[in-house]
Structure formats: structure tokens, C-alpha cells
Amino acid sequence: MRIGGTPIQSANFNWDINFNFARSRNFIEEIYPGIDAVQLINGFLGDRVSGGWGSISARAKVGEEWGTIIGAKYERDEAGRIVVGADGIPLQVQNQVLGTVLPDYTGGIFNRFTYKDFELSFTIDWQIGGKINSITNMFNAYSGLGEMTVGNNDKGVPMRDAVEDGGGLKFDGVYADGTENDTYLETDAYWKSLFGLHEAWVYDASYVKLREIRFGYNLPQSLLQRTNFLRTAAVAVVANNPWLIKTNVPGLDPSQLSGDTRTSRNNGAWVDSGQLPATRSIGFDIRLGF
């Protein structure tokens, strides 16, 4: 759906706006006789169907939404609490649905304001829903390089201090008998226990971002007439990706995620495996009409 118009129009000031909104649903009704599911290439280290450690994958299965992600989840009790073993490490359940790569909604809004010969325009993009798997964050935690591995624990003590000195971390969960978990793990052991536990590293891919902003000036005809060859001329400063307003994925812009092959991009890039940082650029735009 797309809506646009000019809410304000006067001799010196105009405001133009365009809004677009999309919703898509894709359910698999039939694949091929004798086949009810296929795994999707995702672009992790080339044309692979496995998303990486622990065999997380996305599939197209009859009766399911296209791009359903399958992997390991926390084991939980009937109350939804995480269940840990006697050692305080969460138990896992394999081959569980973790969501879908497809967003619920996508959209954007474009605004342009003009005042005499000046122009200001900007574009905001957004997405609601969808899931991505961040191998980058999993490795940052495993290696102790991520910011989530520093700070204080629930006792106000630096988590990297030894457990015997009040440091360490514990999972908010219960033992199999329902009693509250009170086992603190050394910080290194805590984060390493989450390696390959996909639920911990599958994120909501929703985001809101300022995609582009442009401020320009159109040279007046009184000046151009002196040149005898220019009909129009405009200069502008343009910024691309200046502001990621909202993201649920630490350190990652979900809109920049892309597979490393054409097939994986067509299948919906949902695995972040060492994603390069999003780039922010500022440039100048000169437009001349003869």
C-alpha cells in the first residue's frame, strides 16, 4: 500500500510526503511428490543449508510459513522458566521452531520540505518482525570480547571476579525439581555454555532507521541566466545511513544483513556471520541542467 500527497502548498513553502506499507504471508502448500520439506541456503560460508554451529537451519515445509528457523532452545518447565542441570547450566531441546526469517511488516516514509530555493528531504525505513541468527554475537560472548561479558552481576560485583569473591553469573531459572537456581558460574563458563544454544542468539529483526537525509539549494534563475547555457543548477549535502534509530540486535543493523551468494539472498539472508559494520557516508550532490 502506498499513500502520498502534499499537505502544505503555498507560494514559498511546500511539504510533500509519501508513505508505503507492506505485509506478506507465505505458507507452503505443496513442494514435490514425496517431499514435504527442504532446507534453505542461507549464505553462511557459501551455499550452505546449515546456519552454523549446532545445525541451526531455515526450511520450507508443507503446512508451515516459508523460512521457518529450526534450532536449539532452552528447556523450560510448565511455567516457562529455564531449567538448569545440577551444574547450573541450562538444558537444551533440539529441533525447535525459533521463528521465521520473514518480517510481519515493512515500510517507509519520505518527506520533502521546500522553502523558496532551499530543500530538505529524508527517508525513514522500518521493519516489524522476522528473525536473524547472530553468530557474531555468539562468538563475541564465547571469546569474552563482547560488551555483554563485562559489568556487574546481580550482586553488584564485577562478573569477571571469581565466584568465591562474589563474581560470576547465574542463569535465572530452576532445577529439575522446581527449586530456584542458585549456582553461580565463572563468567567464562557462563558464556561458553551458550555456544550453540540458538535461542540465545536469535533476535527480533525489527528496526527503524533514517536511511537518507538531504539538504540542498537550487540556484535562482536570475543567476543562471547570466551563464547563457545553464537551465537549472542545484547543490546538496547528502548523508546515507546517518542514524539507526532502533534495533534489537546488539551491534548490528538488520537492514544491512545479506547473504554472500545470489541464491542465499533470494532465500532471505538471516545469518550474521562476521557481518561488516554498516557504513555511514556524507557526500555532495551537484545537478546541472542544460
Can you put this structure into words, describing what you see?
With 290 residues, this protein is mainly beta. The protein has one domain. The chain contains four helices and 16 strands. The protein has a seven-stranded antiparallel sheet, with no helix packed on it. A four-stranded antiparallel sheet has the order 3-4-5-7, with no helix packed on it. A hairpin with a 6-residue loop joins strand 4 and strand 5 (68-74). The longest helix is centred in the middle third of the chain and has 9 residues, at 135-143. The chain starts with a strand and ends with a strand.
What gyration radius follows from the Cα positions, in whole Å? 26 Å
On the 0-100 scale, what is the average pLDDT? 89
Tally of DSSP β-strands: 16
Low-confidence stretches: none
Q: Walk across the major sheet and give the strand order.
A: 1-2-8-9-13-14-16
Summed up, the helix count is 4
Query: What is the H/E order?
Result: EEEEEEEEEEHEHEEHEHEE
The level of helicity is under 10%
**Tally of individual domains:** 1
Strand content: 35-45%
